[in-house]
# Entry
Amino acid sequence: MTRPLRVLCLHGYTQNGQTFRDRMGPFRRSLKRTLDPVFITAPHIATEFQPDSKEEASESRAWWNRSGNVWSETVQSVRFIHKVMRDAGPFDGIVGFSQGSGMAAILMALMQAAHTQNSDHSDADLQALIKELADCPLPKFAMLFAGFYPELPQFDALVSGSKECKINVPNLHMVGKTDAIVPMERGQQLATQAFVDARLLVHEGGHFVPGNAAWRKQYQEFIDGLDLQH
# Structure
């Protein structure tokens, strides 16, 4: 590997790019020679969060809100990330946490459809969105933590059906046995129903990215095993 792999990092609900970066400190430091992470902030304010101040509210962000028009907000986020990818890319991979993992899956499913023959969808708006993404290369791997399967008919349309419709890049998923925010089963569903050959890891804790030496070794082994020549 001649250079660190550039990775786009998508935070969880109520986080922002800076708070996610801070919380990923052990992950970043242990992989600093391997990964070059770029942390971005979602375009929507998290409306299901009760802040103590207006400043805190503006810093609490979301890729979509369940109380709003979920697909409309998701499309806005897709276009926002697409612009980042055009302006600051290309990116070798994508890292997501919680809602950011679901957002990463939606984005990658759309981008894969844009670069394959599996992109003929009856939903005209979905088809148009897919075509918008054709000018950016699909990230070559994904590392998703505490994720969940987005319960959206548009996402179902992208990944359901044959194996060829699932997201087909090397992918690692980490879920927590005692995660009270995103139950482990939801992360397992994302891995098995949306991805090909998912590597699923389970830790004993809750809603966080494990950063001890044993797990950092697993992350490094996953990255070392990537074949990114093609």
